[in-house]
Amino acid sequence: MELELTTPALLFTAISLLVSAYTSRFLTLAQLLRQLDSVYREKPEEGILEQMKNLSHRIQLIRWMQIMGVLSFILCVLSMFLLFLSRQLGGQVSFALSLLSLMASLIILIYEVQISVNAIAYQLKDHEHKKLRL
Length: 134
Prior knowledge:
The chain has four helices and no strands. It is an all-alpha fold.
């Protein structure tokens, strides 16, 4: 199968949007972590500390999502460059690695979303009698 120069270019928009969404998630969680840290310093409670640990873990996952997304972008650009130089095999390998990096980023996203949902479910467990569910 011959890979055309335009094929890797199709991923540019998707990867850019994903990395932008990841950055937005990161900034939101970092702000929330800072707020909880401030509250915890005034009144240390185990529940707040657990929330902070959860947010810290999620921030680390988002960092890996971003790294894998950017790696995917770099490999995509490399693929285009190699295809431009008529290095078909190198372009194909680079594009395949780009797709794998993007897939890894999305798998980490699924895991991070699951942690997020579990944290919200834990937060709402005291309100089970009010029929609040996720």
